[in-house]
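Workshop exercise sheet. Pairs work together: one partner reads the sequence aloud, the other fills in the structure field after running the prediction. Swap roles for the next sheet.
Pair: D.N. / O.F.
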Amino acid sequence: MNSIKNKKAKLKAKRIFLTKGSCSNTIFYILNREFGHPKPDEERAVDPMAGGILQAGYQCGMLWGASLAIGAEAYRRNNHDIDKAIAVTIRATQHIMESFRKQTNCIDCEDFTKTDFKNKWSFAKYMLSGKFYSCLKLAENWAPEAIQAAHEGLSLSDYEISEPTISCASETLRKMGASDEEMVMVAGLAGGMGLSGDACGALAAAIWKTILELVKKGEWKSTLQDPDSNKVLNRFFEASDYKMECNEICGMHFNSMQEHTEFIKNGSCQKLIEVLAQT
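Structure field:
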């Protein structure tokens, strides 16, 4: 990316963040317009991912937004071939996560902000001390890198599919009656996003789809204590024995898409997926 485009991307990220108010929406918005396909409802519905899933401090909201944008583009570029697009989305998500990690040396919101958003004093300190601007600066600096990494990740097309690739997040949305495109959009959240083992991708997918339907009906407003998202979270906690991270829920890390596919095909996480789909 040349210096002129780099500068424009930085200025755009700063302006959009201040307008949209959430890191997750900001990067989703930017990438969708880079690809030429705005998705205002879908972008708004990703607001609950800011702060690392309902301000819980897990993966940075920018990553959730980036992965969804990548999934939408993968669906288009692969001629609506779901199996191919799911595999490409997972790989491209891993690639953009690596780009983010190089920028921050971490992927979790709490590690970057050093803030517990659930604690009102910690949150107040974040706002009053100017820590908020570190997130604004991150979006500004990472936006051009995110655009480049997204294009690079989506071009990693040498992956040959011997059998369909399954994403736990996509399967959750399938049971929620989602469209093929929506299923691919969340595919990269598999295994705790890009098979990283972090906070559950199926949970994030269920929250996003739940809020998306409310947004489409004009029945949702973004708030710090969103009752609709929290209903999904509470059902999830009951089913997961109050575990949040994929590697703890599954009892393992996934080393490949094939490993994750077999895990889901064998019925593991089935109960959790069913519970989330009912939301």
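Discussion prompt: The mean pLDDT is 93. What would you look at next?
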